[in-house]
Amino acid sequence: MQHDTQDDEAPGWSAIDRALNRIYSRQEPKHYGTVIGFALGGNDPLPGISAYKRIAPVPHWHFITYGFSELYAKESDDPERSGYGFELTFRLADPEDSEDPPTWVLNFLQNLARYVFKTGNAFESGHYLNANGPIAADTDSAIRAVAFVEDPELPPIDTLNGRVDFLQVVGLTNEEEFALKRWSTLKVLEVFRDFLPLWVTDIERGSLLADEDVAARLAEGSAREGSSTGMLFTDQLGWEQHKRLLRSPTTQITLGANQVGELLALLPLRLRFGADFYFIGKEQRIVFEPAQRCSAEAIEESLHLRLNDQALRSLVSRLRAQAGSYEIEGFPALQVEVKQTHIRDQDGNIVRTIG
């Protein structure tokens, strides 16, 4: 879509149009604008989303957002970056050769925008996010997570308001998202690219890890290089220390059963490669560190938990996603308490209990 204002009135919008025109010079996109602007109290942060129809390398719709960057006047203090510094793109498989793109994608992209505008947290290439359900509303699709990578056809552009990157949203299954955590987002996506041309999202597909070759390549990568995931966030985390006369204090950490599995999978892939791992709660955090001798040191709201290889092996082998108390061989002053995790619906009702 060529914006109908002059370049000097909407330089950011016009710059995006020019970038797209290099690919779609003969196509007028389907464009969807907001009725009530976000600044005027509307619910949609993005003033526009365009969709282009593609035949190759597989039939798909190519969506592009307008609004994460500064489309009109320069308002931010950063001269190098336009707004949040990016726009999102999304490629959705279109095996039916539909005349119009599905409208759920518009709300999906607006939801991502609401997250960014509400929290101020910008996406970057290599980030990933779990959608806590199918990304396609009212479906039972296995695609329930997304990762972000540079759009393979849209390089960064320099506008009068600063640089804009085009970050493509790639739909993933929960199993594939966990594979990202165990190794590296971008390296896993490169493996997937052999099966997902241009990283087109197909909401009808199953997990790529069902392919033995894919699973083996990912396992080899994480075993060779460890994990690039340096932190996990959780709602259930606590720690406290109790002083003892003439001895080091005892330390008790409390975890929720829901994230025990992820923690145990990622810790060896960090500590055995000489890297720390941050487990971050609402008010406290635990920093797991590789060490020759075990120790626990409290520094403000952070507990620095130093584990040798014996304690790490014991932690991984003994700890379970089951409520109870666990002792760690080689670290007698440490006790791990696992509590049940209650999964609640939007009304606060418990729909599932883990542990």
From TrEMBL:
Domain named Suppressor of fused-like: residues: 42-205
Pfam families: SUFU (PF05076)
Top-rank taxon: Bacteria
GO annotation, cellular component aspect: cytoplasm
Name of protein: Suppressor of fused
